[in-house]
Amino acid sequence: MQARSRLRASTVARAARSEGAVRAREDRTIDQALRILEQRLRGLGPSLSEVVTCGAFFRLRLGSEEREHFEAAFLNTRHQLIAVERLFSGTVDGAEVHPRIVVQRALALNASAVLLAHNHPSGHAEPSAADRALTARLKSALGLVEVRLLDHFVVTAGEAMSMAARGWV
Predict the structure, then answer these.
(1) Cys-Cys link to 45, which of 7, 57, 80, 128 (CB 3.0-4.6 A)?
(2) What pLDDT, on the 0 to 100 scale, is given for residue 26?
(3) CA nearest to 54, candidates 167, 166, 165, 168
(4) Who has greater pLDDT, 32 or 145?
(5) What pLDDT, in 10s, does the model give residues 72-96?
(6) 154 pairs with which residues across the strands?
(7) How far apart are CA 44 and CA 64, in angstroms?
């Protein structure tokens, strides 16, 4: 009987030490997350305000993809990057994009502005009529919640075409 009591006591002690170790690891993780959040709140992200810089940014992210992908960069009021996310993926010649999802993410991230981009795996960066129509729909949807659409880029491995530079945003 005493052996069982000692066995239970040592098991309880080991469990308590194990819980303490787990809690310590969790506390360290929480501290790291808080530091990251503080940095983001201070707006330490890069400013994405120049067409050439933004085009190069998205070209590096999307230019070599074999399927079409649609991404959004969510920005604060100073055009500093809050987050960039791949929101939709498709086939070799198209991706279905839902404005509702773009607006939801912008609101969830408390973004003031958005840059959009998608790639053309064909290597031809000229926007299609569907690309232009989608841009107009997205600008309208984002405008309803006071989020500015700054630009929409069509990128390939070799170039990035700005719709804003052509007056289409």
Answers:
(1) 80
(2) 84
(3) 165
(4) 145
(5) 999 999 999 999 999 999 898 888 9
(6) 118, 161
(7) 28
Do the Cβ atoms of 79 and 48 come closer than 8 Å?
A: yes
- pLDDT band at residue 41, thresholds of 50, 70 and 90? very low
Cβ atoms within 10 Å of 14's Cβ, excluding its own: 10
Strand 69-75 with 81-89, pairing: antiparallel
Residue type, 45: G
Contact status, residue 88 vs residue 95, Cβ threshold 8 Å = yes
DSSP string, 53-70: HHHHHHHHHHTT-SS-EE
d(CA 141, CA 103): 7
Contacts of 146 (CB under 8 A, 6+ apart): none
Rounded to two decimals, the pTM is 0.72
In the chain, where does DSSP find H-type helix? 2-41, 51-62, 99-108, 129-144
Length of the chain: 169
Predicted local confidence at residue 19, as pLDDT: 81
In this structure, the dihedral spanned by the alpha carbons of residues 133, 135, 141 and 147, taken in order and rounded to 10 degrees, is: -160
